[in-house]
Amino acid sequence: MKKTITCFQIFLTLCLLLALASCKKDNPNNSPVNNAPITATPTKLGLYESDSSIYKLLFISVPTIGTQTVKQFLIFDTGSGGMVIDAHEILPASMITSTGFNFTGDSTVVNGITITNQTSTIEYGADNTTTEKVYGNLAYASVTVGDQGGSITVKRLPFFLYYKGTDSTGKPEDTGSFDIFGVNSEYDVTFPNGAFITSPFSYFDPGTGLTKGFKMAALGTGNFSLKGTFVPDVLTLGLTSSDLSSSSGFTMHTLSTSPGYGYSVALPAGFTYSGKSVSSAYTVFDTGTEPYSYLEDRTAARNLVALPSGTSVSVNTSSNFNYAYQVTATDNLTNVENPISSGTDVSIVSLEYFLNNEYLLDYTNHKLGLKNN
Question: What are the contacts of 94-100 at 24+ separation with CB within 8 A?
Fold first, then answer.
């Protein structure tokens, strides 16, 4: 999801630790004993693949939050980090006003959800003229993610519970318009008390022998539908040593960090289009941006320009990963922007990348993997 975060604070880390006990038996025959720890099995999760005929979206199921069944479907987003959900879907209406939540003190607990008095704002938008804002509070709850294709539960997940979302004119948006499940390692928002919100998957311990992170299979194009088709095993939580080895086929990128932002998934990269080369750029591979990719070019015209059908585009990262595609009348639609007008110098590669290629994020070692199929 192409966005700008407007709060800048330091962070507080929440970790869950899971230990597996090993057994030891007497060995009267002095035969070798294998005391190696048993490796846990990675967890598979499915996604819902939706196509409105205008653009495609991915959704992930969140069936429970706190003590209640909610059966929500959130946009699965590699372009942001953190779960963001509308309070109108999970709290009594009496708790919510247009200016905030109706309670006193540092926090309150409703239906197993702890709502704190820590407030912030998140901004989303393709450029300075399309900024949308979400207003809310830091909350915590036990959250289950997934459904019949497999699920996980994070016992105390920090997330952003919003009471209002507005468009670029300040008009309130519909309920649930900004329900997002951001899985990257950046912070969606930080708070004055040092807490932060980032990928729900980063709080999940996959078990002994596995590295905290996930990989994502290529989606293909045959399962997208208007109602949303459930596709199992798209995501694998818990990375094996094989996943992280050079033989896996992923080109690995080491992520950089800065205080208050976490580990950025904006990769140093250059790109070419229409025979023109742009260097010293940054690029995010983003499932939450569709149907357009956005190339930021400081030499481009101030107004947004759509590349014509037949244009060849190539994105080259600093780790020598190359992603090339051709713009058509209906696929790989691409806009060129000038950062002076758009307000960002980060280019966005849209959901189209994920249709035929793979993605990996290693939260422990702060690496991102890309793989052409």
Answer: 96/163, 97/163, 98/163, 98/164, 98/172, 99/163, 100/135, 100/137, 100/163
The one-letter amino acid code at 280 reads: S
Task: Give CA–CA dist 239/361, Å, rounded.
Answer: 9
**Total-model pTM:** 0.88
How many Å apart are CA 114 and CA 142, to the nearest integer?
10
Contacts of 59 (CB under 8 A, 6+ apart): 47, 48, 50, 73, 74, 75, 76, 228
Which pLDDT tens digit goes with each residue over 45-62? 999 999 987 889 999 999
DSSP 91: S
CA–CA dist 216, 209 (Å, integer): 20
Tens of pLDDT, residues 214-231: 999 999 999 999 999 999
ω into residue 291 within 30 of 0, thus cis? yes
SS3 78: coil
Kindly list the distances between the CA atom of residue 344 and the CA atoms of 12, 41, 57, 306, 368, in Å, as whole numbers in the listed order. Answer: 27, 40, 23, 17, 22
Do residues 2 and 125 touch, judged by C-beta distance below 8 A? yes
